[in-house]
Amino acid sequence: MLSQQYKYKLEVTTTKIIHNPKRVTSVSQETMKPSLHQPLFFFFFLATVLPLILTVHSQSDDSDFIRTSCNTTLYPDLCFSSLSSFSSSVHNDPALLARAAISITLTKTLDLASYLANITTLQPESQDDGAHHPTAAAVFHDCFDNLKDAVEEMKGSMKQMRELVSTGSLESFRFQMSNVQTWLSAALTDEETCTDGFKDIHDEPRKDDICARVDDVKKMTSNALALVNRCVDKAIH
């Protein structure tokens, strides 16, 4: 049994707790007070993690735009692989995407023209082999001339795209873009003429290599023209 003195102390302590609710409440509030680390973590999230999430989301949207645009071309895989690195610069702008396509095609055509120039300088031009058949040297020279024309036409297309006035009238925009379409179509014709010249050449070891290189340029030119056409359609509709 508890002694009378201990029972008295227990009753007094219990009474103080019951009749001093402020003290209990004060302890509860102190316990429930939020940690200072919580707002710091929240601001850290806003400052570092959230921008990364938004950036990844934006890059995904830009990449999806290029993929969707390239699906309207004849060679979508080539289109996407050659233009995917431009996703952060073109964003969702069809005109910027078309301009990028023309730019990389021009670079590719210049490289091929330079390659052919080295070949033609090593071979004197002869019109036929005596049996009214074109010689390989003549075909190389003709192909080189066609590619030079294609380069100039692409340069004209790039110049027009740089000068494109988006704030002008729709008719002005269509006129400017029609120039680009005309030049790219002419470049594609010149490239096709280049490969057509090799049809009667059978014993030239470099024929397949040249034709394969020109075919790559033709595909890129075709894709660039398709993206220009899409740009016009987007503006009209």
pLDDT averaged residue by residue:
80
| Structural Rg | 36 Å
Oligomer: single chain
The CATH class is Mainly Alpha
GO molecular function: enzyme inhibitor activity
InterPro entries: Pectinesterase_inhib_dom, PME_Inhibitor
Family: Belongs to the PMEI family.
Domain Pectinesterase inhibitor: 61-227
List the helices and strands and how they pair.
Elements: H1 4-18, H2 21-32, H3 37-70, H4 76-83, H5 87-90, H6 94-122, H7 136-162, H8 170-196, H9 207-236
Helix pairs in contact: 6-7, 6-9, 7-8, 8-9
Domain Pectinesterase inhibitor: 61-227
Family: Belongs to the PMEI family.
Pfam families: PMEI (PF04043)
Descriptive report:
- With 237 residues, the protein is mainly α.
- It has one domain: Up-down Bundle (Butyryl-CoA Dehydrogenase, subunit A, domain 3).
- It has nine helices and no strands.
- It is elongated, with a radius of gyration of 36 Å.
- It starts with a helix and ends with a helix.
